[in-house]
């Protein structure tokens, strides 16, 4: 498995990975109405190309299958960070995170921060992040609990 930067042709797989992961993994911690608001049916592939191209988006490529992806913004914010439903607890997230942290050091950042879902919170804690606060955010009319977390570098 290779961790590499996003390429335009990855957008469709990334969009599907996001949608399926939220719908099949995050549903363990959120209601059906919440996951439908988080990952609606109308996947917009063009939007994923634009977003992923404007950040340091790392993908875990397993012989053409994208096993996960994570996005680092230049200010240290980790935005999307998802592992494919069939690659959960296989070390994929750790490998993507290592690439993100290496880039953060290269950019001379002094901290990384993320809004982690209930599902992702334990992963980020294992990576050394601390909870700053629990918060409720709204998306398409649904409220979600997530956690503002940070790691000092």
Overview of this structure, please?
The chain has 153 residues and is of the alpha+beta class. It is built from five helices and seven strands; from the N terminus they run βαααβββαβαββ. α1 crosses α3. The radius of gyration is 15 Å and the shape is globular. It starts with a strand and ends with a strand. The model has no long low-confidence stretch (mean pLDDT 92).
Distance between the termini: 27 Å
Give the number of helices: 5
Summarize the biggest pleated sheet. 7 strands, mixed
Instruction: Label the overall shape.
Output: globular
Mean pLDDT: 92
| Radius of gyration, CA atoms, in whole angstroms | 15 Å
Relative strand content: 35-45%
* Helical residues, percent: 25-40%
Strand order within the widest sheet? Answer: 1-2-3-4-5-7-6
Uncertain runs: none
Run of helices and strands: EHHHEEEHEHEE
Beta strands, count: 7
């Amino acid at each position: 498995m290779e961790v590499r930067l996003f390429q335009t042709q990855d957008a469709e797989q990334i969009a599907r990975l996001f949608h399926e992961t939220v719908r099949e993994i995050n549903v363990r911690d959120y209601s059906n109405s919440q996951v439908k608001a988080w990952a609606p049916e109308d996947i917009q592939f063009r939007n994923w190309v634009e977003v992923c191209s404007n950040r340091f988006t790392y993908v875990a490529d397993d012989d053409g299958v994208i096993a996960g992806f994570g996005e680092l913004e230049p200010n240290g914010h980790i935005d999307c960070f998802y592992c494919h439903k069939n690659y959960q607890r296989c070390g994929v997230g750790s490998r993507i995170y290592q690439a993100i942290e290496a880039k953060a050091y290269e950019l001379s950042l002094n901290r990384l921060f993320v809004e982690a879902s209930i599902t992702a919170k334990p992963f980020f804690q294992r990576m050394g992040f601390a909870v700053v606060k629990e918060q409720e955010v709204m998306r398409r009319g649904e409220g979600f609990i997530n956690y503002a977390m940070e790691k000092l570098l």
